[in-house]
């Protein structure tokens, strides 16, 4: 299963390219305040575009053998939950010049590699998650920093990972409708 932690860890590894600072999956108030970069997951949203995906069919069970052409029973997996992950990335290297340099390198890394590869055992292959830099109003980011209370605003950027899929092991057993005659008929009032 692709956990949120493994996705966060993969992002941390990707963003660490090109510099030697310690990447920490902590909010900026808990992270080491020198020689570090905070990669903080601060918001998770359900992905509205993947909510109505059809469940993947695992297999079709054998028919009961009574009639030729009878539909077979199916087993389907519950569709994965698609989520969007929002990260606040804050360099805390100890000086302004290094903060700017690290920030520039991380932004270029995202520009050059706009997808994140995450090991996905359910698929038997790596899953690709899109990385983007959403245009967030400064006011929203200031509210985010205000919620941290103990630290003033620092140079940072928002990173959005769209659409991470979280898999479940639940299975849906689907039996076909064989006969409509046993179903009660709806009666409509006469006008």
The spatial strand order of the largest sheet comes to 1-2-5-8-7-6
Profile the largest sheet.
6 strands, mixed
Strand tally: 9
Distance between the termini: 57 Å
User: How much helix, percentage-wise, in residues?
Assistant: 10-25%
| Tally of separate domains | 1
CATH architecture annotation: 2-Layer Sandwich
Question: Taking all residues together, what is the mean pLDDT?
Answer: 79
Query: What is the CA-based Rg, rounded?
Result: 24 Å
Written as H for each helix and E for each strand, in order along the chain, the element string is: HEEEEEHEEHEE
Q: In the CATH scheme, what's the topology name?
A: STM4215-like
What can you see in these coordinates?
- The mean pLDDT is 79.
- The termini are far apart.
- This protein has one domain (4-59, 72-172): STM4215-like, CATH 3.30.2000.
- By secondary structure, it is an alpha+beta fold.
- It has helices at 4-15, 96-112, 138-148, and strands spanning 22-24, 36-46, 57-60, 74-77, 81-92, 115-120, 125-132, 157-166, 171-174.
- A hairpin with a 4-residue loop joins strand 6 (115-120) and strand 7.
List keywords for this structure.
STM4215-like; single chain; 21% helix; 191 residues; 9 strands; alpha+beta
Quick structural overview:
The protein is of the alpha+beta class.
């Amino acid at each position: 299963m692709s956990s949120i932690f493994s996705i966060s860890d993969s992002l941390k590894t990707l963003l660490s390219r090109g510099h030697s600072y310690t990447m920490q999956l902590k909010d900026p108030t808990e992270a080491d305040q020198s020689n570090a970069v905070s990669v903080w997951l601060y918001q998770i949203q359900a992905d509205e575009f993947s909510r109505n995906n059809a469940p993947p069919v695992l297999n079709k069970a054998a028919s009961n053998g009574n009639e030729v052409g009878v539909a077979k029973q199916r087993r389907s997996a519950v569709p994965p939950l698609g989520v969007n992950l929002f990260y606040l990335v804050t360099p805390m290297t100890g000086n302004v010049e290094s903060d700017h340099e690290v920030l520039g390198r991380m932004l270029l890394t995202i520009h050059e590699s706009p997808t994140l590869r995450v090991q996905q055992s359910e698929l038997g292959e790596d899953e690709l998650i899109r990385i983007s830099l959403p245009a967030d109003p400064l006011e929203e980011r200031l509210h985010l920093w205000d919620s941290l209370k103990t630290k003033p605003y620092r140079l940072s950027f928002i990173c959005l990972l769209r659409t991470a899929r979280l898999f479940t092991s639940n299975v849906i057993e689907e039996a076909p409708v064989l006969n409509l005659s046993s179903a009660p008929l709806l009666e409509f009032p006469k006008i």
